[in-house]
Amino acid sequence: MGIMAPRDATRIAIDALTDAQAKSELKRLAAEIGAHDRRYYQDDAPTVSDAVYDALRRRNEEIEARFPGLVRTDSPSRRVGAAPARGFAKVRHRVPMLSLGNAFSEDDVRDFVERIRRFLKLSADEPIAFSAEPKIDGLSMSLRYEGGELVTGATRGDGTEGEDVTANIRTLEDVPKKLKGRHVPDICEVRGEVYMTKHAFLALNKRQAESGGQIFANPRNSAAGSLRQKDPAITASRPLGFFGYAWGEMSAMPADTQSGMIKWLESCGFKTNPMAKTCRSADDLLAFHHQIELRRGELDYDIDGVVYKIDRLDWQERLGFVSRTPRWAIAHKFPAEKAVTVVKDIDIQVGRTGALTPVAKLDPVTVGGVVVQNATLHNADEIARLDVRIGDTVEIQRAGDVIPQVLGVVTEKPRGAEPYRFPTKCPCPLHTPVVREINAAGEEGVRFRCSGEFACPYQRMEHLKHFVSRRAFDIDGLGEKQIQLFYERDWVKEPGDIFTLEARNGKIRLEEVEGYAETSVRNLFSAIRARRDIPLDRFIYALGIRHVGDTTALALARGYGTWDAFEEACRMIARGDEETKEEMDALDQIGETVIDSIAKYFAEKHNRDIVERLTRQVRIRDAERPKDSAVAGKTVVFTGALEKMTRDEAKAMAERLGAKVAGSVSKKTDYVVAGPGAGSKLGKARDLGVAVLSEDEWLGMVAAT
Ligand code: IVH
């Protein structure tokens, strides 16, 4: 008998495989599973049953468990995330991809520099170096290299989880498949921006128009569209560029400054932006902003501002993050772009909380490279203030991702005949009366609301749309359009109904609805199933409690840890329990407005019932806390002066290690860190028997973790 052919290896029991057979078998499995994945996820046309597919994956995993040294970089087991329902697999970013805070004015930039000085306790004459770079208006991308080889290209997604676009990203000339240089760390995640040049964008739109294809609004959208192609050959035909400017997980750091890292990226074979520059003061930064703005028009790619980053990486680390943005960097935006057009109509939109928002329907106009057709008019008072009438010519502006807004009427042009009259009835089918909002202080607010509350189908539908939105349940294949359809057909009236759809499908028969086919229905149900397991912060956010945005939801999730603890606290607060209220108030980022709104939400039986039915359908995952830290889950109060660091830095460090920082001492406080000049809080800690630490003792405890 000759050498065993790879095919035959498939029949050999795993225990009996030789090294060589295992190796060839893993190679074959990677290719075969990869091909099934493509047919399933990209073509929506699987050729094997789920059971056959599962058996292949199991065999792959079992062989890998016996031969860990043979695990391939392209192994199916390395692809992270549950089976996605549409298009691309999901990739969990090991280091989150966050965004930047914005500066719009000279003062904002000076504040940024001063804040850093204060936070790091730097004297006014201590030099600070910044890396100043153009802010490329494309889409951010994380490229993972293992052993110098490109293994994954992932979009940013929600910052925690992006889409696996490896096959497409491989077609970009600017993306090295193998890193150059001898000292490449074993794991490198290179981050940067994928963009399309302006002239490539215009040429592409011209070709698309000729062939009846999709027309893109701006280079950014066309870069995104080109990258999210199911067929990499299409991506390859679209000229996309890539600039490297940041990194994620690194097994070793090749430099200790931002500018050093940029040089290192270049040495690896990346393009970096040639206009990046080191600046040493706020004046320097402002001069850079001005100079780049002047050159903006000449560049063949869109930029929407500049980015300033602290050059020293040890300082970056100390500065850390506030919620989703770093303290050590900021985007200094260019001013919003403006245009003039005609208001054809004014529409009233009903939000999740019943607030009515007037929207101007415009004659389409290009603002900063984007076609705009709608602009917000904010509220009734704003319409009255501007005296915007249907038929008026108005000036509009668009700033970054912000919804375009109407600035004012061009009174030199012919005016609309009649002043606009804000409706007194909600446009919903119930036509309930509209009421002016009364704020917490009992004063009249600027918003009008539909008084229909739960009876108002618009509000219920908006609630559901919020529930499935990106930062909430984010269910692939279940967007606003589908929610509307399911709502109108009475299939989904409240969040819990989404999870019983599959069981009810015998009656519903979704596959017979126009626009659906068996594969898409199967994909939808599997995406819904995947979301039966949901992190606590997303769950809290998804409830759509007023004033509880995603950052607040995260703070609440971290504060309470589990759904049971959080819900119990909410119910207590709704019943007026003062102590629980104070406890919640002690959490960082949580204040009176949020607490009142939580109280209102949980006081409503209708809401409690909806939540109750929903919790029966899902498993809510406890909030993640850094586990191996001695202070994780502890409540700390800082009082008096600190000498080694500022209060802000101490607080940020404690939170990074999973501790809760409270403003006042109570029975629930674990440690009081007291510096010179500590007063009543120290006294209270002693009365209550709370452990009191000096700054050094605290630092020693933190360092030991
Ligand atoms: S640094 C922690 N540098 O801007 C944030 N971002 O609003 C690290 N962007 O998502 C980002 N040019 O897509 C950085 N030179 C640059 C950039 C840049 C464009 C984008 C990026 C990011 C967004 C943040």
Overview of the molecule:
The protein is of the alpha+beta class. Among the domains are: 90-322, D-amino Acid Aminotransferase, Chain A, domain 1 (2-Layer Sandwich), CATH 3.30.470; 535-621, 5' to 3' exonuclease, C-terminal subdomain (DNA polymerase, domain 1, Orthogonal Bundle); 635-703, BRCT domain (Rossmann fold, 3-Layer(aba) Sandwich). Helix content is 38%, strand content 21%. The chain has a five-stranded mixed sheet. Helix 2 (19-42) packs antiparallel against helix 3 (50-66), helix 4 (106-120) runs antiparallel to helix 10 and helix 20 (563-574) crosses helix 21 (578-586). The protein is globular. The model is unreliable at 1-7 and 80-85 (pLDDT under 50). The structure holds 2-(butylsulfanyl)adenosine (IVH). 2-(butylsulfanyl)adenosine (IVH) is lined by residues 98-100, 133, 135-136, 140, 156, 193, 245-246, 307, 326, 331.
Query: What shape does the CA trace take?
Result: globular
Q: Give the end-to-end Cα distance, rounded to a whole number of Å.
A: 60 Å
* Structure class: alpha+beta
In this entry the ligands are:
2-(butylsulfanyl)adenosine
Number of helices: 26
Helix content: 25-40%
The CATH architecture name of the domain at 90-322 reads 2-Layer Sandwich
Q: Give the mean pLDDT.
A: 88
CATH C-level class of the domain at 90-322? Alpha Beta
CATH H-level name of the domain at 90-322... which superfamily?
DNA ligase/mRNA capping enzyme
Number of strands: 26
Proportion of β residues?
A: 15-25%
